[in-house]
Each structure stands twice: as structure tokens, then as C-alpha cells.
């Protein structure tokens, strides 16, 4: 290397140090000038009224759950990303590396994402049974729809404390899992990892006003509001990946 090339390289390296002065977090570009707008993750708008899932989910629970609990997770998630100068916009990428992020990103990011999925897999005048490819896959994986319901309900009832039960696609096959708190099957620290296509929130805030301590009753009634059309779409996307 001659002196001129050496100086040129040194200048570039020096410049690099100035242009990217901040620490790196799993390759995410981090800027000191991040604003809330840069990272804003938003609550999915509800496509039905707060009272539309009555009598399975009462209007008061829906309204508090959506406008208080989910709104808080969403706000706190955006605030965490801003404070930590995290510009990653793909939440799945964040989840797949979640063990490297602060706990607040894990808890609030999970709370943000999980509830968006939960609202979307419920609908008024829904329930019944899935059809098509999803119905076939459920029979193949669990023996029958009835057995799937039984196993999923067990996972939801058996989750100690607060958390979620999931139907996931793992290696193109269906599996049931559950996670504590606001963890999600995409997260690198989830016991069973996969693509979540259906879920139930078993935090007490999801059912306590109507069902009090009777979590099993809430789980039993939940099947009346499942939006199988949406779950089927989620399944097709997940197996198509
Ligand atoms: Mn909840």
C-alpha cells in the first residue's frame, strides 16, 4: 500500500466513524435523531363494534382491552423503539432476535403484535369449523377438528398465569403451543417456534369482567367467535413462505 492509498483508506474509515457514530444492535441502523413517526407501529383498526362479539366477549371487556391495554402496549412499544433508537421496521425480524433486545421491547412488542392477531381472528356471526386446506391440515395434524379444539383448549387452560395459546405453522405443519406474558412464537426464545396463525389471549383482562375466574368457560365460548376465514388466509400465507 503506498502512502496515498493509505491516507485515502484512513480518511474513508475516519469518515465512516463520523457518519455512523452510534452503537449497532443486530445490524439495525440506529440514529440519534429517531422520531416517533419513524417507528410508529399502529393498532389494527377493529372491523366490528365493541359489542359485536356479545355474548362471548362483552362490550366493556372489548373496549377496555382495545382502547386501554392494547393501546398502552402499542404506545409503549413505539416509545421503547424511539428511546432505544431502533429503526428496524420489520417486527418479525425484531422478534427473531428478541433475546438481544431490552425486555420492554419484548413485552410491549409482543403485546402490540399479539393483540392485532387476536382482533383479526375473531368476528361476529363466526365460529363453526374451518374448511378447505386448513380443515385438511387440522385433521392430518390432530386427527380431527374436535381433537384440535380439545388440545388447543388444554394449552390455553394450562398456561399458568398470563399468556397466550397458539396455532402455529412449523416446518409447513400445524402445531399448538403456548407462551407466557406477551411472548410470541416468532420470538427466538419461544419454547416452540413457528408462524402464528391463530391465538387466544388468556390474560385475565381478556375475560375477567364476564367470566371472573372461569377461564375454561371463556375458552369454551371463544369458538363461537373464531374467524376461520382469516385463520385460513393466515395458514395459506404461512405455508406459502
Ligand atoms: Mn390482552
What does this structure look like?
This protein is mainly α and 241 residues long. The protein folds into two domains: 3-120, Helix Hairpins; 132-239, minor pseudopilin epsh fold (3-Layer(bab) Sandwich). Helices cover 50% and strands 10% of the residues. It contains ten helices and three strands; from the N terminus they run αααααααβββααα. The chain has helices at residues 3-19, 36-39, 59-83, 91-96, 103-120, 132-142, 145-158, 208-211, 215-222, 228-240; strands at 163-170, 173-180, 195-201. A three-stranded antiparallel sheet has the order 2-1-3, with helices on both faces. α3 runs antiparallel to α5. The longest helix has 25 residues, at 59-83. It is globular, with a radius of gyration of 22 Å. The chain starts with a helix and ends with a helix. Residues 1-32 have low confidence and may be disordered. The chain binds manganese (III) ion. Residues 65, 69, 115, 201, 203, 205-206 line the site of manganese (III) ion (MN3).
Give me some keywords for this one:
241 residues, mainly alpha, Helix Hairpins, minor pseudopilin epsh fold, 3-stranded antiparallel beta sheet, 3 strands, 50% helix, 10% strand, disordered N terminus, binds manganese (III) ion
Strand-helix topology:
Elements: H1 3-19, H2 36-39, H3 59-83, H4 91-96, H5 103-120, H6 132-142, H7 145-158, E1 163-170, E2 173-180, E3 195-201, H8 208-211, H9 215-222, H10 228-240
Antiparallel strand pairs: 1-2, 1-3
Bound molecules: manganese (III) ion.
Manganese (III) ion (MN3) binds at residues 65, 69, 115, 201, 203, 205-206.
Amino acid at each position: 500500500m503506498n502512502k496515498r492509498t493509505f491516507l485515502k483508506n484512513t480518511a474513508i474509515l475516519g469518515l465512516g466513524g463520523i457518519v455512523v457514530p452510534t452503537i449497532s444492535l443486530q445490524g439495525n441502523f440506529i440514529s440519534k435523531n429517531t422520531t416517533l413517526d419513524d417507528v410508529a407501529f399502529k393498532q389494527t383498526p377493529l372491523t366490528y363494534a365493541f359489542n359485536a362479539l356479545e355474548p362471548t366477549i362483552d362490550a366493556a371487556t372489548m373496549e377496555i382491552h382495545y382502547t386501554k391495554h392494547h393501546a398502552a402496549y402499542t404506545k409503549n412499544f413505539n416509545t421503547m423503539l424511539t428511546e432505544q433508537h431502533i429503526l428496524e421496521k420489520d417486527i418479525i425480524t425484531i422478534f427473531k432476535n428478541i433475546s438481544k433486545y431490552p425486555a420492554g421491547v419484548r413485552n410491549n412488542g409482543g403485546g402490540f403484535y399479539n393483540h392485532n392477531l387476536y382482533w383479526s381472528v375473531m368476528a361476529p356471526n363466526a365460529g363453526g369449523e374451518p374448511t378447505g386446506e386448513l380443515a385438511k391440515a387440522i385433521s392430518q395434524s390432530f386427527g380431527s377438528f374436535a381433537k384440535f379444539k380439545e388440545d388447543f383448549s388444554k394449552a390455553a387452560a394450562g398456561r399458568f398465569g398470563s399468556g397466550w395459546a397458539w396455532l402455529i405453522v412449523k416446518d409447513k405443519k400445524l402445531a399448538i403451543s403456548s407462551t407466557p406474558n406477551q411472548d410470541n412464537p416468532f420470538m427466538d426464545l419461544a419454547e416452540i417456534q413457528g408462524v402464528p396463525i391463530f391465538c387466544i389471549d388468556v390474560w385475565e383482562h381478556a375475560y375477567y369482567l364476564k367470566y371472573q375466574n372461569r377461564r375454561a368457560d371463556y375458552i369454551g365460548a371463544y369458538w363461537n367467535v373464531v374467524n376461520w376465514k382469516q385463520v385460513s388466509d393466515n395458514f395459506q400465507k404461512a405455508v406459502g413462505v
